[in-house]
Design brief:
By secondary structure, this protein is α/β, with parallel strands linked by helices. It has ten helices and 17 strands. It is elongated, with a radius of gyration of 23 Å.
Length: 355
């Protein structure tokens, strides 16, 4: 158990993240596997994660926005560092100064980029970012717009790769293959975390996993092939006995049906514990589940620890770890593991583990 005096401790296993990257590389023999470290490496610390992956040999990284790239450039000095969010007007000089690769997804962005390496993003079914069919037709008729560019990759993004039987996967693959014939020959990138597990047809010159690096299951419904990477432990601040009929927390949404022992822990929605877990989340103590009761509040959450005399002020409850994964918490909260990780707050004392 963590021994730090802080009220909560988030432990990140950097070796496990590197092991997951290597597992994904083995599943994607057609080309290298990038490290997607956007959203502060899914809430776990982009500089630390990027540095660990770079030390292990990763030489391709993706972030969402320019400021995220600037935060990690120094720890991945010789790697391709690409910005998925497109080229915001007025930012071109920063890309050149810091050797960043813009991901261009519109004719306007292509025309504003003054040359140098770039990635082309084509939309094959997400309808968010990426060159639309009419823009692709214009490029096919006038390829001189691309003459100034060194196209590092042509990429697209799968919309439902976690559902292997979803027909949109095959449709997007077909569209992407057709689009590539309309553009100059260049390496291509398609598979995200779950896409890597769709089979060789979805292999490409560069895969772009994010969630699977951080231990989320890229194959829902099947055993998780990835190693867990996070452990979140929180202190018990107070323990009290309440009689049958007493309510707990805001609005009294939980009432004790019997004499009950309540532990109040140093965790709330300000720390990323979703309020939707009120009355049906859980923590773990000494290998035993203890149910979350009452409303999750900003800084405090209450648990029924009746029958667990070892729970005392100052001891630790496990929120994420060997007994409860981010995917487990997500299922209880009605969301996905991505949101669980990226919601993790800044008040945790963070510890980065390596061998």
């Amino acid at each position: 158990m963590p021994t730090d005096a802080a009220p909560s401790v988030l432990e990140v296993d950097l070796d496990a993240i590197v092991a997951n990257w290597r597992t994904l590389q083995a599943r994607h023999p057609s080309g290298p596997v990038a490290g997607v470290v956007k959203a502060d490496a899914y809430g776990l610390g982009a500089p630390q994660v990027a540095a660990a992956l770079h030390a292990a040999g990763c030489r391709h990284f993706f972030v969402a926005y320019l400021q995220e790239a600037l935060a990690v450039r120094d720890v991945v000095p010789d790697a391709m560092l690409a910005v998925l969010g497109g080229l915001i007007p007025g930012t071109g000089a920063a890309y050149t100064t810091h050797d960043l690769t813009p991901v261009l997804g519109s004719l306007d962005e292509i025309d504003r980029w003054f040359g140098g390496p770039a990635i082309l993003h084509v939309d094959t079914g997400m309808s968010r970012l990426g060159l639309a069919p009419d823009e692709l037709a214009q490029l096919a008729q006038d390829r001189t717009r691309l003459d100034r560019l060194k196209i590092r990759y042509i990429l697209s993004h799968l919309a439902a790769s976690e559902l292997p039987d979803d027909p949109s996967n095959a449709l997007q693959l077909q569209r992407f293959q057709a689009v590539r014939t309309m553009l100059p020959a260049a390496p291509f990138s398609l598979a995200n975390s779950s896409g890597i597990f769709l089979g060789p047809a979805f292999g490409s010159d560069l895969a772009r996993p994010g969630a699977a690096l951080y231990g989320l299951n890229p194959t829902p419904g099947l055993p998780n092939p990835m190693r867990p990477v996070v452990r979140l432990s929180v202190r018990v601040l107070a323990v009290r006995d309440i009689p049958a009929g007493a309510s707990v927390g805001y609005n009294g949404i939980w009432t004790a049906a019997r004499p009950t022992r309540i532990a109040t822990a140093a965790l709330g929605y300000a720390d990323g514990l979703h309020r939707t877990l009120s009355n049906h989340g859980s923590a773990w103590f000494d290998g035993n589940r203890v149910p979350l009761v009452g409303r999750v509040s900003m800084d405090l959450t209450t648990f029924d620890v009746t029958g667990h005399p070892g729970v005392q002020p100052g001891c630790w409850l496990e929120i994420l770890g060997s007994h409860q994964s981010p995917d487990d918490v997500a299922q209880a909260a009605g969301t996905n593991g991505y949101e669980v990780l990226t919601s993790l707050g800044r008040r945790f004392h963070r510890v980065y583990r390596t061998a």
